[in-house]
Amino acid sequence: MSDPLQEWGAARALRAPSPAEAQELVARARRRRWVRRVGPVCVLALAVALLWVGLRPGKEVGTAPEPPAVAEVAPAGPEVLADGTHHLDGDVLEVEGVVEVLGGRLALTRGRVTVTAHPRAEAPLEVVAGSWSVRVVGTVFTVVRDPFEVAVAEGIVEVVRGEDQWRLGAGQRFADGRVVRPRPAPPAVPELAELRAQVLRGEVEGARAGLARRLDVHPDDHEAWALLAQVHTREGHRDEALVAWSRVVDLGGRPAQRARYESAVLLEDRPAEAVPLLRAFLETPDPLAAEARLRLGQALLDLGDASGARAELEAVAAEHPGTRPASKAAQILADLEP
Amino acid sequence: MTTTGVNAHADLDGDLVQRLRQGDLDALGLLYQRHGGAVRSLVRRSEPTMTPEDADDLCQETFLAFHDGLRRYRHGGRLRSWLYGIALKKARSYRRREALRGVLRSARGVGAAGVALRRDDPEARVDAQRQIGQALARLPAAQREVLVLTALEGLAVQEAAAVLGISENAASTRLYRARRALEQP
Fold first, then answer.
1. Does an H or E element contain A165, and which?
2. pTM for the full predicted model
């Protein structure tokens, strides 16, 4: 019974979350914490506001609601468009602020407006923002009043100021008095070689972000996990490094060997945790066996197991003569002599 | 996953919990990386009809609930068992929600196919696994939870009892009944 059950269970195993998924969880937790802290304050403020609205002097029950402020601002004269979506002669305007309609021109007096316009050669739609104006040539674009900025999603617009003109195409922005070219999208999954190069150049932040992206797509990439562990070690983030090394151990195989040793090195001040890692490491022949056995001896000594420590240190001296670990082991053994 | 990879870092969990208590939410992310795979797998095994996507959501909810109730947690080196307890409670809520939505879970007669597994589930192609899946789905949830915790997650009966908040005797009884039910054709 147990074999089919174990196989069934193994088939339903799901992989561990990637660093990117972990960041998503942390973002959710931050939002929940913010809501918990700010929520009661907002509820209280809303309650006070509602109470004030209900109790303010001169209000009569059953009176009609006051007309919106926008209509009062312009009872006669140019049409004023406030926040929301507006249809104007076949064009669609998404307003976040205030726009005045002046014939075939729109005056952006505050905020921003996104325009989806149809081309009209005889009377092109024009948006004026202070001394700036933007004419529609057939496009979807957004204009921000302060600081002045234009972003084009589709089509082409002309940005005009006095005698100066700039033509913007799809994907381009106008800001700080100049056209800003779109930046190329970063590669979806960075190559490991480039990430290693970034680490060597000291670009740790970029390497870490790149590794998170890579591990999101390739969660079983032990080399990426190992590099991430090294980055964390370099930054002095021991917990983060141990988590990354433990993922390499979980993946198994030869990389797990190295991960056990590196974890034991990080846990030098925690001999109780280092010992099982070093014992597991020493079960497989490895070029680092001498160093690992020396560390094991030192860890056992720290734990008060003198006889166990002596056995390991003697093994280092016997099995790896002439090496630095053997010299060190001999020195420690000499110190242990009564 | 090797024991050396997880248990040897039991104090790492303690460190991360301590950081979390001090308000460092990045520690929650690290705990999620360390234990999220096991929790995801547990919920999917304890609810055979659950999709991997639902298991992911439930897993996140588990860790958020752990963070919310951090004051109640006393670190004793078995953080994973604590998370299992939360996850199984979430799974029970999921089960009740699914039942209320009227999702079809009942068998279509003796030897029915596809009860526990989705019609397009690749596992359905393996007869032995399909039968196990069907049999597990037919088990009462209380028995299935004990079986999954002990037979698949490797917990001792005593530990499984602690996770589920029941007596060791009750856990043993449920486990016995679950195994008997799986042995029947």
1. strand A164-168
2. 0.61
